[in-house]
Amino acid sequence: MGRLVIVSNRVPAVRERAQPAGGLAVALRDAVQGQECLWFGWSGQQISDDEGEDRRVSIDTVDNVTYATVDLTKSEYNGFYEGYSNGILWPLCHYRAGLMSYSRQDRHTYHAVNTMFAQKLAPLLKSDDLIWVHDYHLFPLGLALREQGIKCRIGFFLHIPFPPWSLMRALPGAEKLMRSLRAYDVMGVQTEDDARNVNEGFSVVGVPAQARVFPIGIDPESFQQQASSGLDNPEVQKLKKSLRGLPLIIGVDRMDYSKGLPERFRAYEVFLRKYPEYRGKVIYLQITPVSRGSVPEYKVLREELDGVVGHINGTYGDFDWVPIRYLTHPVPRELLAPFFRLSHAALVTPLRDGMNLVAKEYVAAQDAKDPGVLILSRFAGAAPEMEDALLVNPHDADEVADALHKSLSMSLSERQLRWKRLKPDVWRVTAGSWARSFITALAEVRSE
Ligand code: ADQ
């Protein structure tokens, strides 16, 4: 097999390279053990527009992986990353066309950055490379590489959902974007629904390709290991002590409108109203670090959340009890795993999510003796694989409140049975097996 070339918007920062902290970096380390790999993308640095003219690719090699990065100018960052990727494609792909703030200028910058990436990457490529492009920032990269004369096999994986064509066509130029995906030899998505939607788009624009499903997973063994070994950590003990024996409900999500946080808080309020015997008798910890804080819709979300949490805490709190312990800063992963282990239930209720790895991490962190209950949105990509969770519609506050009540009154034997049934899939489809299946599928395509 040829060299593997990964292209993603962000390349792991230098400090993460020797010991990848999570997600894609870990999945790929597992999948490419020993194999030569080139990872290309944005460095994370912004430069002035003038400096963009003669920017160079920085190259840095750690073991078998060579990292090649380029900087983005301030206007590229604004137009390509914040504007088009996160202000237009992200809401649209999460079925929220109403939150799209479309601008022709941003669309232009998005395509220009994809072309620039292709121009910088092309000279680094060898003829038998397998190229794997990641996510919505880089939809047109395959075509841009073909325009540079690249004939290697190129695959694309979309980490987020893909909406039905009736929604996607709200994007000016949707047909052209869809047609550009023809440049890929393999088009991978998270779920059957996403594949159906992509294929619908393909058939509308007359592309004969078919999307294929490659659900992503986690590294369950190491997460479970972190959950048990972390229990002695003084920070974890501090949380445990503060619970005073009360059950802990936990939520861990980036601060994003796709995660259904205001809806979740309102459902919790319904729970406190409907089941007043639980007031003062549960601890709800929500960890929600601010993300994309300079995109306007995210600022609005933050204010909304501050308001809802303040309302609930003011209305239902007491001298010695806070209904929602709400943190907007990140918590280190080595604490998250034991926090999951300590908790009685997790609320994972996105309005839409490509997969949602927190759901899988929550299952991996439990033990057979006293497993916690997963309350999971039907609209997370993980839901079809996790039918033994308490599946809910996150828009239905009463349903979520009732699921919370059910989780708190569930017998130990039912919790154990549900967990026992959830576990095999989390262990079967891991981050490493996901990457290996994609790479194998790409390697099997005959190069043109
Ligand atoms: P995300 O939208 O970032 O990913 P998710 O799949 O839940 O969502 O992954 C988040 C990761 O960040 C998890 O590993 C989680 O533990 C960690 N994390 C979340 N909140 C944290 C916090 N407060 N502190 C520390 N760590 C935190 C996108 C798509 C998903 C898809 C993934 C992978 O939106 O649907 O599952 O890519 O393809």
From TrEMBL:
<comment type="similarity">
    <text>Belongs to the glycosyltransferase 20 family.</text>
</comment>
<dbReference type="Pfam" id="PF00982">
    <property type="entry name" value="Glyco_transf_20"/>
</dbReference>
<dbReference type="InterPro" id="IPR001830">
    <property type="entry name" value="Glyco_trans_20"/>
</dbReference>
<protein>
    <submittedName>
        <fullName>Alpha,alpha-trehalose-phosphate synthase</fullName>
    </submittedName>
</protein>
